[in-house]
Target: enoyl-CoA hydratase
Amino acid sequence: MTETLIVERRDAVTLVTLNRPKALNALNSQVLAELLEVTRAYDADAGQGCMVITGSEKAFAAGADIKEMQAQGFADMYSHDFFAGWDAFTRTRKPIIAAVAGYALGGGCELAMMCDFILAADTAKFGQPEIKLAVTPGMGGSQRLAHAVGKAKAMEMCLTGRMMDAAEAERAGLVSRVVPAGELVEEAVKTAATVAAMAPLAVKANKEMVNAAFDMGLTQGVQFERRLFHALFGTEDQNEGMAAFVEKRAGKWTGR
Ligand code: CO8
Model:
């Protein structure tokens, strides 16, 4: 528990709930600092295999904190490289699932997209409304949204501020699945538990290679995949995983 986050451990799953209800979970510097601390601890904890980030029923997060940004000028923003702290969040090596109900706007949508995949409640609404404030996304939204849903929808959303509902977000490939709002957190934790039960090195390798698809060309990306695939044949868990299959039993992982 921190001031802006509720942190729970559900066996090998870390469940983080954004907790600034009066500001619809707007992301200020404190949320960033606390989330980075919690995420670093999660990444370093061998007992934790997957993290879920969620918000409230009304809002995953309604954006970066407008009140915190309002008085800042170019010199403040540029000299402090405002928002660059979020890049550290994306360097988390273990998987993070966003469980989104209600508004995921601006920085909220960007945070969800920084996670490895998004599970959406049927109440979820995604948008990049920064243009209405005479600015742009600043936490990677223009890039990640374009990668996720293609130019046409990303451009329309950024230029008009239009929100996408859960059904459209699923059709467009922004979210992996839509579930009833009342089941969102349990479904996300269940999904995270499935990931957490996998061999840890293979989890990291799978995350790294899927992410590589967004940075590399196809030939380079396939090469990267193959090298990591080969590397896993040097692990105890690969021996165990294949032996367990042949012997028709569950594998027991050492993370080595
Ligand atoms: N920041 C700060 N406070 C917020 C934010 C926010 N993003 N969103 C909502 N709040 C606050 C409201 O001010 C209000 O507080 P108060 O009661 O003190 O007035 C409280 O949360 C409840 O909000 P509403 O009364 O507005 O609730 P409604 O149900 O009427 O409306 C909405 C919900 C539609 C979500 C509405 O709150 C809204 O439009 N929020 C702003 C959405 C937005 O524009 N988000 C983008 C923010 S900018 C951003 O994320 C990235 C900027 C990148 C800049 C790049 C710089 C480098």
